Amino acid sequence: MTLAWNPELLAHRSTFCGEFEHRCLDCGRPIARRGILPETAIGAALRVFEVSLEELRSDHRHADLVEARAFVVWALRSLGRPRSYARIGETIGRDQSSVNHLHRKAIELRLINDDFDAACRGLGQRWLEVGGTRHARCS
């Protein structure tokens, strides 16, 4: 099942847009933040999915490896300022179109796989806990 062929899932894709966004406690506007560090996202994927860095960057396409790669892509695109697909590809050893597919796969997995969604929420919540709560001009 893929998002491209499942209109029910595609309609819910926007549920996760802006989910992990810092908002100023004074004015309520979003606080622009740098994205999560690639090392942090990769480290979390290695722990959660129990794969090695070599396996993550390998050419193998086992389901657990695909999920781990999708998790890294989701984190680098969704937490903070999104990195480009090309830049993410350099980080995990994939080309731009593969990273684009992995991002769509991550969105699909968040909708249909509770464990994957819980891993994303956990990383997102930890990422939200680190960072400013007010704009400099509002303090």
Note the run of SSEs as H and E. Answer: HHHHHHH
Question: What ranges have pLDDT less than 50 throughout 5 or more consecutive residues?
Answer: none
Q: Strand count, sense and closure of the main sheet? A: none
Class from helix and strand fractions? mainly alpha
Write down the Rg. Answer: 16 Å
Give the termini distance in whole angstroms.
Answer: 48 Å
Count every beta strand, where a strand is a DSSP E run of 2 or more residues.
0
Strand proportion, as a percent range, falls in under 5%
If helices are DSSP runs of H or I spanning 4 or more residues, what is the number of helices?
7
Q: Which geometry do the CA atoms define?
A: globular
Helix content: 55-70%
Mean pLDDT: 84
Q: How would you classify the quaternary structure? A: single chain
Any overview of this molecule?
- The chain is mainly α.
- 56% of the residues lie in helices and 0% in strands.
- It has seven helices and no strands.
- The chain has helices at residues 7-11, 38-49, 53-56, 63-78, 85-92, 96-112, 114-129.
- Helix 4 packs across helix 6 and helix 5 (85-92) crosses helix 6 (96-112).
